[in-house]
């Protein structure tokens, strides 16, 4: 059997948008394939990072990494950094994966930025860190390292990807909390996967949990308001162009 795509299911983000959770959910289905973890070349068995870390290894490397033993299985690459690829890179992705289904999860821009900053705090300070994040050089370091503008510019990213994948699936992260079962059923159906064929024990456990949640490190109010200003345009554009509304950021500001 000749495979049409190197990767059949691509999730391009957003980072801190439950991509790990969704990857685990889809991996409960016997019709999906998870590539082997070869850390640090890949990030676990979820993120192949071909277009940002590993392009120098060549297309044959990517094809070998993603290839399932049974060519009928759907291979998955959930790399959030793909969201802000340039047009040349996305065109190459389309050439290699012409029939791939592309998923883009959008999260409240402020909440996503806060979660990303907290992830970087965890990496640097460890889980027991208790000092609030201030408006200082440490925050400015995290601001750059987290690439908040690139990850958060949803409309730019979506427009770039839709030029090549006009049927791209856009999801609201908050639906995983307000209508988790309905959202998951729609995703399975959209990917032509029968949810009843999934491992129901594993799926049930995942439906009641999160795979990854950033530690809630304290953040000073001025830092929060700076991030609100930084992400305001992304929120407005997403609402105006996509009709997508978010509530998570408002709750952060109200705390």
From TrEMBL:
SUPFAM superfamilies: P-loop containing nucleoside triphosphate hydrolases. Residues 7-200 form the Sulfotransferase domain. InterPro entries: NST/OST, P-loop_NTPase, Sulfotransferase_dom. Pfam families: Sulfotransfer_1. GO terms for molecular function: sulfotransferase activity. It comes from the Bacteria. Keywords: Glycoprotein, Transferase. The keyword Glycoprotein applies. The keyword Glycoprotein applies. This is Sulfotransferase domain-containing protein. It comes from Pararhodobacter aggregans.
